[in-house]
What we know:
The structure holds two protein chains of two kinds. By secondary structure, chain A is of the alpha/beta class. Chain A is 29% helix and 26% strand. In chain A, helix 2 crosses helix 3 (133-145). The longest helix of chain A is centred in the middle third of the chain and has 17 residues, at 97-113. Chain A is elongated and about 85 Å long. By secondary structure, chain B is α/β, with parallel strands linked by helices. Chain B has a domain at 67-167: Nucleotidyltransferase, domain 5, CATH 3.30.420. Chain B has three helices and six strands, in the order H-E-E-E-E-H-E-H-E. The longest helix of chain B has 17 residues, at 21-37. At the A-B interface, helix 1, strand 3, strand 10, helix 3 and strand 11 of A face helix 1, strand 1 and helix 3 of B.
Amino acid sequence: MASVSSEQGESIPLNLMPMLDIFSILILFLLMSFSTDPISHDLHAGVELPETAVLDSLDETPTLILSESEILANDKKIVTLINRDVEARYKSQGAIFPLFKELEKMAEANRRFSKVKTTTGSLTMEVDKEHRFRLLRMVMLSAQQADFVKFKLMASKNI
Amino acid sequence: MSRLGKKKVFEAGQSVELNIMPFIDVFSLLCTFLLFSAVFLSVGIHFVQIPFISNAAPSKEEVERQLNVSVDVGKDNIELVTSWSEQPLEKKVLQFPHAEAGIAQLHKSLIDLKQAHPKVDKVDLFLDDEITYDQIIGLLDQIKLRFPEDPRTSDLEGDVLFPKVVFGSVML
């Protein structure tokens, strides 16, 4: 048994069994909860996802992030949101112009590297649960003009 | 003799001291690694589509008469509209309050619809500007998925109800 010595030189035995028990249980729990999802992604700090019962798992890192205060495309800040809305100067024909320009570049790159030249792929979106459809529609319209018509909407699975 | 082959003989009643420190070391490292790599949030995805204009030439094949299903979500109520693509259109509109009970009724009506028309797999979803993303995901769950408590019939199996959802209101 493990022991420690006091100043007087007497040896005090340490019972390590309870600690080993805790360790075993902790390891068992961590191994059980070890994720087998194809991709592990840390959510943006300004995003709280809604809950879903869907079984499909995230298969790629999100391209678009609509946090509480900004819109990011591939982790690059595109516009700042004020009261969960885009400033009027960035709006054009119901879409968000800087976002459209960024997505257009992305679509062009996708076409260049894709075997099927006509497809641009889909956009994975990480959206804060309090955002209104008004903002989502503007983002989707920007994507539509850049030839993205398929979306993967992220949500937190209720386990 | 090899080192592994050596055996230490203890006399009966003699206390044997086990060195458990390496064991604790391994446990500590394993714990740290697992804690760092643990994912406590599992993320799911809903596939959706928006309408688009195609340059492709229209198909010359005769198109079968098909049932169009649309869900129109307002702030206070939800409408489930069904109509045929060709005459007679037989348009039917069902209204539900936009509340928990109304959404459950919508889900039940969609199950009945799927049982009556198993080939239909697409729903057009029209949303009010004020609907939150949280509510959208809740509605997508009700439209796209079948839950364990839903009725099971031989012609309606699996966990998917209407796999294709098109956001009809995203148009220029």
